[in-house]
Design goal:
Elements: E1 2-7, H1 8-13, H2 23-29, E2 37-41, H3 48-54, E3 72-77, H4 90-94, E4 97-99, E5 109-114
Parallel strand pairs: 1-5
Antiparallel strand pairs: 1-2, 3-4, 3-5
Bound molecules: FE2/S2 (inorganic) cluster (FES).
FE2/S2 (inorganic) cluster (FES) binds at residues 61-64, 66-71, 99, 101.
């Protein structure tokens, strides 16, 4: 699975919005460093977080077990599995929030914003 990623810090810095259809196009035209915007590949049987780490990126995480939401990402495109044993409420999942530590790609392409743990709607989930 091919993943295009974007750091939520850049979304904040530039005053962009997560639900902007043009978000990744704007990111591609901004002068962002390789850690903030780029692409990576997820191998079969690899979670999104594992793929990011193998690719040399330091995305946030804590428990690695679906219990804390520090690893939360926002899906702009594609789908990422949600394990049964997790803390993400249904309404946030429906809006595209997922956990990267145990999320496995369900589509060949994904566009994700990582580092969304600082979003206010996730505050109560962060341990
Ligand atoms: Fe805690 Fe993913 S690191 S839910």
């Amino acid at each position: 699975t091919r993943v295009e990623f974007l750091d939520y810090e850049a979304v904040v810095d530039y005053g962009w919005s997560l639900d902007d259809d043009e978000l990744f196009r704007k990111a591609a035209h901004a002068d962002l460093g390789p850690d903030a915007h780029g692409r990576l590949l997820v191998h079969p049987d690899e979670s999104l977080l594992e793929a990011a780490e193998r690719s040399g990126f330091a995305w946030p995480f804590s428990c690695r077990g679906g219990a804390c939401a520090n690893c939360a990402v926002y899906l702009a495109e594609g789908d990422l599995s949600q394990p049964t044993d997790h803390i993400m409420p249904d309404d946030l999942a429906e809006r595209g929030f997922r956990l990267s530590c145990n999320g496995y790609p369900l589509t060949d392409e994904l566009s994700v914003v990582f580092n969304v743990k600082q979003r206010p709607e996730l505050d109560d989930l962060i341990l």
